[in-house]
Amino acid sequence: MRDTGMGAGLGGESLLFLTDEQLRQGIEAMFFAYRGFTADPDRILTDLEYGRAHHRAVHFINRAPGTTVNNLLNILGVTKQSLNRVLRTLIADGLVESRIGHSDKRERHLYLTDEGRALEQKLSDAQRARMRTAFREAGPDAVGGFRRVLEAMMDPEMRRAYARLKEQGA
Amino acid sequence: MRDTGMGAGLGGESLLFLTDEQLRQGIEAMFFAYRGFTADPDRILTDLEYGRAHHRAVHFINRAPGTTVNNLLNILGVTKQSLNRVLRTLIADGLVESRIGHSDKRERHLYLTDEGRALEQKLSDAQRARMRTAFREAGPDAVGGFRRVLEAMMDPEMRRAYARLKEQGA
DNA sequence: AGCTTACGTCAGTGTTGTTGACATTCCAAT
DNA sequence: ATTGGAATGTCAACAACACTGACGTAAGCT
Q: Which residues are in the HTH marR-type domain (chains A, B) (predicted)?
């Protein structure tokens, strides 16, 4: 087994949790857990001819109603063309409403329709159910650690977006 | 704000960490963190004309040298056609070697070549670096919680695969 | 001999992402 | 008032990565 060479001679703190093997287990845990994380919504979506991209759009529009396309673009980290394709179908299907901005008429503000909210509800119910089970199994302390590690893993820009959404939801 | 209706009257334990808002923050944390998780390898891969699928294959072949195609299929959770496309390019490019099984000649055992190991090293160095920073920022207790929640989030089948890899690496 | 398993491949399709190019609309500055 | 830039939208082409379905080959099992 290889080692980073940083595990020895660092005083009382063993830092055993930073060995390459521990890090690799963390990487694999992320990989397998993300599969579970998306599995339930994915099943619902394939029945509805939608994909994960539609879920993400619906999720964040619900989370921040009236958000602009540009704002959504930054949160989702995709190109406007990619997002536009998804939004177009959602608007055409009557799940999302796009209203021209009042102060800046170039901007489009996005809202879920009743039907859109119904889908969001259905998807997030499924996803929250899994998250709830996992949180309950692991316990409150583990949940705190989970959140701290994930936050530290984000790119700074995403960490800011995440913090903004957190404030908004509280 | 909606509520699950499970937050009240449960005695001393408040279960505040299981509110819909907390769960939604967990969901968003997973989304943003996974982006960071894959960002560094993705950057390396695009330069090399490879994708995330190649990374996953190389990772697990390195992790379990001599693994069969079928075993890899189960771990990655994709179709054989999808995996085969990736394996074909990796073998053609001399990163992976496919050896016919000794006892069962139908099976192909997969190994990384020196060149394959070099790529795996490069990719996992980048990914481990981010994981290491995140782990160090969050601290050992948080890392334990992180791992417990992720494990609880996996599908049972993936939890078994994860456990098998853990034993193997120890 | 017949069935199953493991693997590979061909063909077609769908989702999601990417560039690049171009039009429109609007705000803001000269 | 015109010019420049930002925000949005659209079209086209393309690539990665997943899927299904069908077919073939070789090997193993009963």
A: 20-155
Minimal Cβ distance to B147: which of A18, A29, A37: A29
Residues contacting residue B101 through CB under 8 Å, at least 6 positions apart: B68, B107, B108, B109
Question: Is-contact B167 A21, C-beta < 8 A?
Answer: no
Is residue A128 a contact partner of residue B20, using CB atoms and an 8 Å limit? yes
pLDDT in tens, A74-100: 999 999 999 999 999 999 999 999 988
A36, two tokens: 């579970």
Inter-chain touch A22–B146, beta carbons under 8 Å = no
- On chain D, which bases lie within 7 A of the protein's CB atoms? 6-13, 16-22, 26-28
Q: Is the dihedral of CA B31, A29, B117, B103 positive or negative?
A: negative
- What domains does chain A contain, in order, with CATH numbers? 21-138 (1.10.10.10)
Helix (H) or strand (E) holding B147: helix B140-153
What DSSP character marks residue A18? G
Which tokens is B73 given?
Answer: 């299929």
> What angle separates helix B156-169 from helix B69-76, to the nearest 10 degrees?
120
- Rounded to whole angstroms, the distance from the CA of residue A132 to the C1' of nucleotide D10 is 42
Using one digit for the tens of pLDDT, what is the confidence trace for A12-61?
467 888 999 999 999 999 999 999 999 999 999 998 889 999 999 999 99
